[in-house]
Design goal:
The chain is of the alpha/beta class. The chain contains 14 helices and 17 strands.
Length: 387
Amino acid sequence: MRLLLLQDQMYVPSFGGGNKATRLLLEGLARRGHACAVVAPALTGHEGPKSEGEFREAMAARDVAVSTPASGRFRYEFHGVTVDAVNSKDVLSAAPVVRDRIAALDPDWIVVSDDRQKVLLPAAVEAAADRTLYLLQTIVHVPFGPLAREADEAHARAAAAARARLVISEFVARYLDEHAGLDARLVRLPVFGAGPFPALGRPDGEFVTMVNPCVAKGIDVFLGLARRFPDVRFAAVPTWGADGAVFDALAAAENVTILEPKDDIEEILRRTRVLVAPSLWPETLGYVVIEAMLRGVPVLASDIGGLGEAMRGVDFLLPVEPAERGPNGYTSPPQDLEPWVRALDELLSDATRYERLAADSRAAAYATIAPHTVEAFEELLAGIDDR
């Protein structure tokens, strides 16, 4: 099988859950003998390379050789996958590369992941609608309905014209049906690895940790907890959502340490006592929640979007007031911290409760990831092909 992935986020490094999911999927398919290729930006406006020099440094740090097959384009091999990285943060620059790679590779399947700037999916559908799969990992990137960051009729038509829509949670499947009358197939991406996973959670662990602190992800809840527990060490791992205001707020918190993001999330979780995921926007699933639970790190998560699917009935799923979206981005309404304070205090003060929740979390997460295999993805594609 020949598969081409199109995404408007960097392929390597992949700090976000969605980027990591697509990278590990393609690496798994490559190991099974499939020919896998990618078109993605080389640069980012967030955490990661912001210039050609930084891009080359990031690749050199990973012992990845980079060539330049055409102006404005880099090419490299990473774990058996061929990547064409466009030398731009603007995905509009990728459209000609997309057409070129589809023509050159003649892929059996074209997977378009999220497509925030609404360029890649129309290009793929125009070239080969019957081979295009629209993979939705972030619900606000849909082009319709009340949760869409930006409605777009042309992009909605492209979503409908794709051979199939793939979603990572039942939450998104229901949304597509309710707001666009579109069917979707639930896909379990092999983002977590095969395990076994080390039991890292410890009642005396180093940090109460938040990954990707920003307004939409609930930084106000995180900082509120840090203020309420001044003698507890907190850690923030900024990724794509952090801006200058976020860094300033984190720096002003005396008991908050900023940790660099890592290719391997286990390096972060090894230092984590409790993970907090206080998102104020509708998370599609919440990969980092499952990553923590797999390693016996207790999680405090918002009762919003697909996070309940990730938690799988394990404590603690906690209330929040959703973020409000305006022309200049998200704002956080006042939050009731008391349920979060009580939950965190319970875990920090009761080692027996902590250890029981750590064990429950591991058991639930192992059950969650059981269908997350490369073989299951191959079977899903075969089912689409046979319809």
